[in-house]
Write a structure and sequence with these properties.
single chain, 396 residues, alpha+beta, 7-stranded mixed β-sheet, elongated
Length: 396
């Protein structure tokens, strides 16, 4: 048994020494430090990257670094020795099963809304945290290896905003908890050409006319009858991403753009509103302007939707902000909306003017043509008669 232990330790030493060769000339070939880890809080994954050379320097390898001490595959990293400097990478999927498998810690924090959520007085966020710790392989009672611990955490608003254009345009998947279980509802946004919401809006390459009315529907599919769709805020941006500093609000709670009309909101599994096509001033030199529409959407319990809608819009803005924020929110976006230079009324006036001009132009032109034709025939006839008459006299 003692011989097997010695062989194992020797093999481990050789393995570490072989992998550590890539760290020989690296400036990171030193003792571990807290700053060796970097964390990326993505929309679908949490990515951890830890400098690998300090781990080798402490006589560990990548197999000894485990998330929260959980030994399953999801909680172990992959060494990337091609990177400069070499790193140990971990990827955690942002779903409850994956995060739970690695025993991550969940904490709910509450703070005033900022940025895109500045219209809300209270925003709840979930903090996901954990640690990558070293597992000492020494079989005896003592060891000469230091214990290594790297802490990480990510903060995500429960009113989650996606920064993924394809996902936002195609539809946003929202997980809803119900009866101690969960199901997925898909939010989609569709543009229509009338208030009947039957015919989807077709946008020509030359763009819609300015002030042309656009009808918007945000719909949830596979949704329990216990929930309705509630739009908190809808705005436009010049690029596909909703997370930008420059945006134009169509409505936020009580505050509405004068050309925006809300049809239904929080009373059914579809929310509807309309607005008039416009152009961003920064596109004044472009023949065709383009923008994207985004709506921050929640699914509210039917019994409480009425309480979440604005009631007293004459109250100060701070009092009108939402006090309770639920976790089942997402931002759904439209496809590209093109708008041309021509106004809808101007286009109609142009058509009417063209028709009138055509009517005014057609009658005189026809009369002139007829007169010219008659005169031409008469002149030709007179010329022929004169020529014939002169020849006839000469013969006599």
């Amino acid at each position: 048994m003692k011989t097997l232990t010695v062989i194992f330790v020797c093999q481990l030493f050789l393995f570490i020494k072989t992998d550590a060769q890539s760290c020989t000339d690296s400036t990171t070939n030193r003792d571990p430090e807290n700053s060796d880890i970097s964390v990326t809080c993505g929309t679908q994954f949490m990515d951890l990257s830890i400098l690998l050379c300090p781990i080798y320097f402490a006589n560990y390898n990548e197999s000894h670094m485990i998330i929260n001490g959980q030994s399953n595959n999801e909680c172990q990293g992959v060494a990337d020795t091609t990177a400069n400097p070499p790193v140990l990478k971990f990827r955690l999927s942002l779903n409850q099963a994956s995060l739970g498998a690695c025993n991550n810690v969940y904490r709910i924090d509450e703070a005033p809304g900022t940025g895109m959520l500045s219209s809300f007085s209270s925003i709840q966020s979930v903090n996901i945290s954990g640690m990558v710790v070293s597992h000492d392989p020494a079989p005896g009672m003592i060891t000469y290896r230091p214990m290594i611990t790297y802490m990480y955490s990510c903060q995500y608003p429960l009113q989650y905003i996606l920064n993924n254009t394809e996902l936002a345009v195609a539809g946003v998947n929202v997980a809803i908890n119900e009866n101690n279980g969960s199901f997925i509802s898909t939010l989609t946004m569709t543009l229509f050409n009338s208030d009947s919401y039957n015919t989807p809006l077709i946008i020509p390459t030359s763009g819609l006319n300015l002030k042309e009315q656009i009808f918007v529907e945000v719909k949830a599919s596979n949704l329990s009858s216990r929930f309705n769709v509630l739009l908190d805020r809808c705005f436009a941006t010049v690029n596909p991403y909703p997370v930008v500093s420059e945006k134009y609000d169509l409505f936020v709670g009580c505050v509405e753009d004068p050309q925006t009309q809300i049809g239904q909101n929080g009373v059914a599994q579809t929310a509807r509103f309309s607005f008039e096509a416009f152009r961003f001033v920064q596109h004044k030199n472009l023949t065709v302007s383009r923008f994207y529409l985004h709506c921050h959407t929640r699914l509210c319990n039917v019994s409480s939707c009425a309480d979440m809608l604005p009631k007293n819009c004459s109250a100060p803005r701070a009092r009108r902000r939402r006090e309770a924020v639920e976790e089942n929110g997402a931002t759904v976006s439209s496809t590209e909306i093109l708008v041309g230079q021509q106004t809808e009324s101007g286009s109609a006036q142009y058509k009417q003017a063209a028709v009138a001009a055509k009517e005014e132009y057609s009658s005189p032109v026809v009369a002139v043509i007829v007169c010219v034709a008659v005169l031409s025939v008469l002149l030709v006839a007179m010329g022929a008669y004169y020529t014939w008459n002169m020849r006839h006299k000469l013969r006599l």
